[in-house]
Amino acid sequence: MDQIVWSEKYRPSKLSDVINQKHVVERLKVFVKEKNIPHMLFAGPAGTGKTTSALALAQELYGKEWRHNVLEKNASDERGIEVIRNDIKNFARTKAMTNVPYRLIILDEADALTNDAQNALRRTMENYANICRFILICNYSSKIIEPIQSRCAVFRFRTLIESDMKKFVERIVECEKLKISEDGIKAVIEISEGDMRKVANLLQASATLKEKITEDAVYDVASKAKPTDVKDMLDLALKGKFVDARKKLQDLILKQGLAGSDIIAEIHRQIYSLDVSEEKKVSLIEKIGEYEFRLSMGGNDLVQLEALLAQFLLFGKK
Amino acid sequence: MSWTTKHKPKSVKEFVNQKEAVDIFLKWIKKWKPGDDALLFFGPPGTGKTSLLQAYANEHNIDFIEMNASDWRSAAQIQEVLGQSMLQTSLFRRSKLFLIDEIDGIAGREDLGGVGAIIKIIKETKFPVVLTANNAYDQKLRSLREHCELVQFKKIHVYDIERKLKEICENEGINYDELVLRGLAKISSGDLRAAINDLEAISHGKEKITIEDLDSLGSRERETSIFDIMKIIFKTENILTAKTSINNSDKDPDEIFWWIENNIINEYEKPEEIAKAFDMLSKADLFRSRISSAENWKLKGYMIDMMTGGVAVSKREMYRKFSRYQYPSNIALLGRTKADRKDMKELLGRLSKQFHCSSRKLKTHYLPFIKIMMKNKGTRGQLISSFQLTRDEIDLLK
Question: What ipTM was predicted for this assembly?
Fold first, then answer.
């Protein structure tokens, strides 16, 4: 079936179509040619082609039958390492059906695993090393324990540069026959911050709203797609309307189910454009850091964010 | 036979008070089929949690099987005791109704499997199961709550207790002074069972009870109501007073934590006070997380100090006003939005495979854009058929 969402539709299925990451792609192609792959660790910022490269590699390695030989897991969705290990065990029980001697396990967002879980994973990697190969994907390789890193070939994916982003935008524009202004293209690239997924999503959402995509249209979509509630919430707190701000926060966490760390990251992004003095911004950033730390120590999302929000009360205009 | 047993309601109609709870229960049991959620009755003692089930079972002539969760030590034991009887239909095809009492007393922590075993039973049982708890918001019942509909039993009104006592006196042929019954009802603080026990005690071997008989009653250790606790914590400036206020409560510190959390803004008005009080809670919360991750129960004292004393001293001076303290709003909100969150989780789980990313990433990176795309009629149709969205799911993407 045709992919409706462009981020999937324009996900390259061949290694040679992966934009920018030449240094990585060249080596991956050699692995495919020799049908011999090591365990691998793909690290790099969001939307730079890590998952895409892993999937493309799988398709080139196994051809049409790739789905039968690849287990795709996402570490941040699974309930615990035990679940992942069980799935891997079941998967590894049968041998590859092709002339490639290994089956492939792609573990995405591997940095979501705790150290203990990673140690368990390490043992699993060793146990099945003769029949399975792992590709671990993460944003920061430093979050992966050293014993795993040392067993993997580590590939760093680079942030995309503007000219690469432009190539990708133009490809979609051409295929979808979009009308878009130069300013519009610029806006898409600027907002996406090197994230291809965001490029595709922004373009598609803009195209569904407007016949011709202009700079304004793109910014409009970007602001609609942002959790505006976060901005509103901060403004309310700064105005001293804590009761309303707190309601918004409860809504974000309890109704929409957003993770505390995602909200706090958005608060951090919003700080720079708030209507307070630069000096106060710095003090607020310190507070944000403090409560993010408490969150990472196991604090409750709602309690910690409420406490942070209450701090904003102190920095508003009287 | 004690009076509490003798004068138990024989049918649901005779049931005193608790109209809301009774309605939820009747609706639930009429529709119940295997695989449905269980009910979790919670509320103070003597408010009719067990009696309601007994009355219903009696009225409909079904087997009523009652168990106490605090007797079980392990998951295996729970399976052993419950597994058989809940999975098999009885010889004469009589229906059954199960009650697992005091679920909050279940031994061990969540990962020892006790709670997991109960959840498994809820999923597999062929008969309706009701659980009871004094404190439904106990941390260790967190995952269990996802499989239960919560039903609150409130304290019984003084007037209703008085009426029931009157009925019993007439039944037993005892002459009474109205003031005595009112007194008994008041002393009981909403606990009907306690009131009946007291009545039986003072009328033992007598034909008439008088106001003097009340003096002979030993005072039962009574819990401080949660509203009184709030009043003490928010009004006092002494941390020991704040801390000890929670000693005689039927609620555990975790639940009181959420009461304080929700009522800071009902009491404190100055930004500095609000900020300080929430910071205290944030610190208490950190102790709480260390307690559960390191199983270091000694830390509980610090958590309680921070959330009671810490919040108490966050004010500059006492507010001389009447504050209406409210039930924790996050718990209420969680209850109301449970169905939506469950649907959303399922939808995200299904879509995340197509998008090769986690549910969490899908929610933050894709969902906002998909919502915008849904506003365009053409794209909307394509998305609906491509993702095979149900009507409920379409609503979630509004």
Answer: 0.79
Residue A41 pairs in a beta bridge with A136, A154
| Closest CA in chain A for residue B345 | A257
A269 touches chain B (CB under 8 A): no
Q: Which residue of A has its CA nearest to B285?
A: A299
Q: What confidence score (pLDDT) does residue A294 get?
A: 94
Residue B353 C-alpha, separation from nearest chain A C-alpha, in angstroms:
9
Mean pLDDT within A7-33? 88
Contact B352 A294 (CB under 8 A): no
pLDDT(B332) > 60: yes
Instruction: Examine the fold and report which residue of A176, A208, A225 is the final residue of a domain before the chain moves on.
Output: A225
Question: pLDDT tens digits for A97-141?
Answer: 667 788 899 999 998 888 888 888 888 888 888 888 999 999 988
Mapped onto helix, strand or coil, the DSSP state of residue B63 is strand
CB of A107 less than 8 A from some CB of B: no
Is A79 at the interface with chain B, CB within 8 A?
no
**DSSP letter assigned to residue B80:** H
Radius of gyration for chain A, computed over Cα atoms and rounded to the nearest angstrom: 22
Q: Which pTM value belongs to this model?
A: 0.59
Residue B129 has pLDDT above 70, yes or no: yes
Chain B contact for A82 (CB, 8 A cutoff)? no
Question: For residue B263, what is the nearest residue in chain A, using CA coordinates?
Answer: A243
CA atoms of A50 and A15, how far apart (whole Å): 11
Residues B49 and B186 both lie in one domain: no
Q: Do B46 and B141 fall within a single domain? A: yes
Q: How many domains does chain B have?
A: 4
> Which of chain B's residues have a Cβ under 8 Å away from the Cβ of A226?
368
Residue A288 confidence (pLDDT) above 90: yes
Provide the domain limits for residue A297. Answer: 228-315
Q: How many CB atoms lie within 10 A of CB B242?
A: 25
CB B273 within 8 A of CB B316: yes
Using only C-alpha atoms, chain B has a radius of gyration, in whole angstroms, of 25
